[in-house]
Specification:
With 266 residues, the protein is of the alpha+beta class. The chain is built from eleven helices and twelve strands. It is globular.
């Protein structure tokens, strides 16, 4: 690692002030991405702002017709939450399938969304559920938040504070994981709720998480796995690498979408 300064603020305002005053400063949430990249000298921020002591960023609550999860809430806490299980049980399954126990007990929902890894699980769930991402400055709709590989609508000095989910009628997620990393080679989230039917795909697209609108239209007419027969995504828009070529990933999108609908129905 390169030398860097380290601060542990106790409030969001303190953290925001440090970001504003420190050129190139980086936030540390769970550290599952930042720490490895710093160790490999792929990143060298002059200041690391650790959010672990910011209590206002933690917590899970149901408010009327929405589920609200604080940005520093870990994957394990989401997976084990009785509130989540009684509100959007499929979201527990999303969190439970992330990485391994170490990752789940350190990684956070806010960190995952801010990083926007193209193979991460949460972006698909957040996009399918039409969630709203709140920051210290504003609120951002999921459709506007994700802007490409490792790219979001966040400004340099902006901090995710919480994520608010409208409670759906049904929600399911299915993924085909890389056996080594457990990242999604293809993951599909399907939701039916106040915003209609939404289908979001992670792990497969060349530009990161995206909505499968043809599948949404088919499931609007009939919310069953059979409604997706004959519907596929364009292989030219899919990733192709040593783990699976574009045609294979395009096939997996349909397979995982059908499984996600089955999970939602269950």
């Amino acid at each position: 690692m390169y030398a860097f300064d380290y601060q542990r603020p106790s409030t969001v305002n303190e953290a925001a002030a440090l970001l504003a005053n420190g050129s190139g400063a980086k936030l540390l949430a769970g550290g599952q991405t930042l720490i490895p990249t710093m160790k490999q000298r792929l990143a060298s921020p002059p200041l690391v702002v650790d959010l672990r002591d910011v209590a206002e960023l933690r917590g899970i609550d149901r408010t009327n017709d929405r589920l609200v999860i604080g940005a520093m809430t870990t994957h394990a806490q989401v997976a084990e939450s009785a509130v989540v299980a009684s509100t959007i049980p499929g979201l527990c399954n999303v969190a439970e399938g992330i990485g391994d126990p170490h990752v789940r007990h350190r990684g956070t929902i806010g960190g995952s969304l801010a990083n926007n890894d193209p193979a991460a699980d949460y972006p698909a769930a957040v996009l399918a559920l039409a969630a709203t991402i709140y920051t210290n400055k504003r609120e951002i709709a999921a459709d506007d938040f994700f802007q490409g590989l490792f790219t979001t609508a966040l400004e340099e000095d902006e901090i995710i504070t919480r994520v608010s989910f409208p409670i759906p009628e049904r929600f399911g997620y299915a993924k085909f994981p890389n056996p080594a990393s457990r990242y999604a080679m293809v993951g599909v989230a399907v939701a039916k709720g106040p915003q209609g039917v939404r289908v979001a795909v992670t792990g497969a697209g060349q530009n990161g998480v995206f909505r499968a609108t043809d599948m949404e239209a088919a499931l609007t007419n009939a919310f069953t796995p059979d409604a997706l027969k004959g519907i596929s995504v364009d292989p030219s828009l899919m990733n192709s690498d040593i783990h699976g070529d574009a045609n294979y990933r395009a096939h997996l999108v349909t397979v995982m979408a059908r499984r996600a609908v089955q999970a939602a129905a269950a």
